[in-house]
Amino acid sequence: MRVFVGVPVPEALIGPCMRAQALIRGGRPVAAEDLHLTLAFVEDASDAGVEALHDELDARRLPAAKMRLEGVSSYGFPSSSIAARVADDTGLTALRDAAHGAVRRAGLVADAKRFRPHVTLARGKPDATRMLEAPPVSQAEPVTAVHLWQSQLRPGGSVYEILATYPVEARA
Asked: Which comes out higher in pLDDT, residue 13 or 75?
C-alpha cells in the first residue's frame, strides 16, 4: 500500500493555490481537497506497517508549524509537475523529522528525497508560463493537523484517502 504523512493546506491558502492553478495550461490539476505538503512518503507498506505508523503518530505530540506560499516551482525532468513553493519554517522541518521518525519506528522506509516544501498544483507536463506572472504568495498560516493518507494510482492520476488525522500543537 502507498501511504504518506502530510499537512493539509490550511483553508486560508486554498484560494491562492486555486487562483495560481487556474493560470496553468494543460496537465492534471490537483483537487482543492487533495492539496497537501508531503512530510514522508512510503511506497510499499503492509497493513500491519500502516497500523504501526498510525500508532506512532497517534502517540506523539506533533510540533507547531506555519505554512506560507512564496512562489512557484517545477519538478521532474522534463517538468512533470508544477507546485507552489512553501517558505522554510523550522516547525515544518520539525514535523517532517517527526513523520520520518514515526515511519522508522513503525519499521517502514520513507522516500529519502531532500525536503523541499511544496504543494503540487498540477501534474502531467503542465505549462505554468502564465502563473509566473502571478505566482502564489500568502501570509503564514498555522498548521492545525497532519494526515495519514493512502495514495492509489489510477489511470487518471492518484486518488487520496485520509486514513487518520493527528492534531498539531498550537504555536504560542
From this structure: 13
